[in-house]
Design goal:
L-2-Hydroxyisocaproate Dehydrogenase, Chain A, domain 2; 3-stranded antiparallel sheet; 2 domains; alpha/beta
Length: 316
């Protein structure tokens, strides 16, 4: 096994999300070597060629199409391959399709690399993150999913627009499943360090409780709406993945709502869900069990049960 290159990233899957993720990584200067791997080798080669032609506009980066053997020294392996969600489908509808695909992908990865960090993006991301942990044999800290990092960004974006405050000054999390049972954590949501319930009275636009609930609903249904209108989502999720990659490669100790194995958090075990998590060069440094409301804890547990019910019968 080769020594890991701390600045090498492998992206498995050169479809819309995979190719756009490679683009986001390249534009932001995250990683000095990026290899694209896809069952359709010609597609991967075309995407890599297109990206390479912009090399003079970005930080130096070696980007190319390769095979699984090329990820033997990759620090970070990002998995975007799998069946895409279609209009009218839920993320959970993809379970059986992508479980089979992942069994082949994970065995191919571990044949060449057992020391890197695995970042799962393919949906249903929580179930596939759990499957990846089980199949890979990697330690808990080195298997994570993109989880609700995108949902949390959507949450902040909608609050930003609603309250007329830059998204960078809005702080809030979506936890639980990346999907229909996700949980907005209103008890920890704040603007400029002020809890949302205290900020609303001083805001020019006073929010009623039902208006805030509409924001939660819009976050949950955003993916469906985009898929209905344009057929797929890939820009924002690629930026979310690039954010996670940056936290890992630059050893940031950033707090992001990635999906990882639950080890008793809020009473949940033996499955993967999203919670605010400290991310650095080791992958997961610490899952933060923050003081949330009783209702939010109950909703988080309900989200866990929802996923548990959907993985019964899977050979994991």
């Amino acid at each position: 096994m080769n020594k890991l290159n701390p600045n090498k990233i492998a992206v498995i899957g050169a479809g819309g999300v995979g190719a756009t993720t490679a683009y986001a990584l390249m534009v932001q200067g995250i990683g000095s070597e990026i290899v694209l791997i896809d069952v359709n080798k010609e597609k991967a080669e075309g995407e890599a060629m297109d990206l390479r032609h912009g090399a003079s506009f970005v930080n130096p980066v070696d980007i190319y199409a390769g095979d699984y053997k090329d990820l033997d020294d990759a620090k970070l392996i990002i998995i975007t391959a799998g069946a895409a969600q279609k209009p009218g489908e839920t993320r959970l509808d993809l379970i059986k399709k992508n479980t089979g695909i992942f069994k082949n992908i994970i065995s191919s990865i571990t044949k060449y690399n057992q020391d890197g960090i695995l970042l799962v993006v393919t949906n249903p991301v929580d179930i596939l993150t759990y499957l990846t942990y089980k199949l890979s044999g990697f330690p808990v800290n080195r298997v994570l999913g993109s989880g609700t990092v995108l949902d949390s960004s959507r949450f902040r974006s909608l609050l930003s627009k609603n309250c007329g405050v830059a998204a960078s000054n809005v702080h809030g999390y979506i936890i639980g499943e990346h999907g229909d049972s996700e949980v907005p954590v209103w008890s920890l949501t704040n603007i400029a360090g002020t809890q949302i319930k205290n900020y609303c009275p001083i805001c020019d636009k006073v929010c009623k409780e039902e208006e805030l609930e509409q924001i939660s609903s819009k976050v949950k249904n955003a993916g469906y709406e985009i898929i209905r209108k344009k057929g797929a989502t890939f820009y924002a999720i690629s930026l979310a993945v690039a954010r996670i990659a940056r936290a890992i490669l630059r050893d940031e100790n950033a707090v992001l709502t990635v999906s990882s194995l639950m080890e008793g958090y809020y009473g949940i075990e033996d499955m993967s869900l999203s919670l605010p998590t400290l991310i650095n060069s080791n992958g997961i440094a610490k899952v933060l069990e923050l003081p949330i409301s009783k209702k939010e804890k109950a909703d988080f547990r309900a989200s866990a049960k929802h996923l548990k019910d959907n993985i019964k019968g899977l050979e994991i």
